[in-house]
Each structure stands twice: as C-alpha cells, then as structure tokens.
Amino acid sequence: MDKFFTEILVFTDKNCNFCRELTHKLNCEDINYYEFDVNENSEEFDIFEELTNNDIVPAIIIYNRLNNFTNTLLPNKDFNSIDELILRLTNKQLT
Description:
By secondary structure, the protein is α+β, with helices and mostly antiparallel strands. The protein has one domain: Glutaredoxin (3-Layer(aba) Sandwich). It has 3 helices and 4 strands; from the N terminus they run E-H-E-H-E-E-H. Helix 1 packs parallel to helix 3.
C-alpha cells in the first residue's frame, strides 16, 4: 500500500476490545490511520452505515488519493479477525 497516497480511516468504539486491539496492532506495524470514534462522530458513521449496510466496528475505509479509489473492509464480511485485517492491510490485499 502506498502510504503517501493512501489514507486509512478506522471507525472504532472506545468500549470495543477489538477496536483497541486493532489500533494497537496498526501502531505496532507503523500503519498510519485516522481514527473516528463512532460515539463522537455519529453523523459520519451513520453515513458510512447507510452506504455499507454495516453497523459493526472496527470498520475501515481505504482511500487512495492517486486514483480516487475507495474500498471498505468490514468485519464478518472482509475479515474475521484483527490479525487477518492487519495481514490484508500489510499485504495490499484489498479485494
């Protein structure tokens, strides 16, 4: 993943153990991301939820500024564990 042109947005909940695990592992892997707590950014998450039909966190939006490509990674659909998600992010497996 080209970190100069890619932005990773992570929707989290401060009471979610999986969210804490994800942000910890993102930091350990030195993956830059923007975190949005769903309780503090409810309007943004409502839009995300409506567009993706997903209300489970952690949820990811990947945006590539170079080609305007946007992808989502949703729990129980695109990944089943935090380790699987980290593997996909670090190996550029976005499909």
